[in-house]
Amino acid sequence: MPMTKHTYTLTEAQRRSFASIFVLDKMVRKGRRFAVAPTDPDEMVLRDVLQMLFNEHLIEIQGAYYVPTEEGKARVRTFRQRYEEYLTVYDIYCAVDLATGEFAFERYYDFDDAGWQLYLQQERWEDLRVAVAIYKKLDPVEIVFMSFVMEGRFDDYADGKWELGILSGELWDEILAIVNSNLHPCELGYTTTDPNDPSRTLEVTSDDVMQDLLTRGGQIMLELVRRGQEIEAEQRALEAASASPATTTTTTTETVYDYDFVITDPYVYYTPYLSPYYVSPVWTVPLYPTVVVF
Predict the structure, then answer these.
(1) What superkingdom does the record give (predicted)?
(2) CA within 20 to 30 Å of 199's CA: 46, 97, 104, 228, which one?
(3) Which whole-number Å values give the CA distances from 59 to 17, 45, 69, 155, 216, in the listed order?
């Protein structure tokens, strides 16, 4: 691992690349339409982003509007898969007590929503999501971008003007500030006294810390997945038991769209993350457009 802390930067092209997937997701999943020749000032700010998507054949022109292509829908499916993995695998590292090795998420099911938010505010927690991303050779900017998507930071910008939020220099500066101020793996090594010989000092490397952190995190994550499956099964059983005889014969199916990412068995899917080195292939396939807008 690098011994000095790296400072991350973000070019205008990279920012537009992240923004383009956010816009494409809105088009595919929310049915948002954008005019080829917009008159709405909010849409006009997305001109370069839409051109980037068009250049990469992720959207096409039908009449007066841009619409997603099949490749665009596939790209959104990849984005949703990464997003689901972020929520399940990486978000649990948002609150770790380095002194005790405790994860806040170990007690996730002990609280209601308000109590959980209060618990997360305890000063002992360190946000190690950036450190985990760096250790796994992922882009930490993308991980913080995912957290902003989850928290609705772009959607809530300027009273719901997400078109401005996704391109806001203010929010992207905040993302970079988080990436560069959070702990990186190189900062996590330490020395301690040998419990068997107090005269000796033992060095615990950053690699040792990260492997222990990821091993424990993987175990907690799988336990949360298992508990979540149990709760869903209990809820289905209660619903079936409380249903009237007239409705028990009716089968309700959830609509699955072509952009959805569906995990048949989450426990099996996420089990490889017990290895501190595992990274799902979805994080290595192309996602963000790289075509230069002229």
Answers:
(1) Bacteria
(2) 97
(3) 14, 17, 5, 22, 42
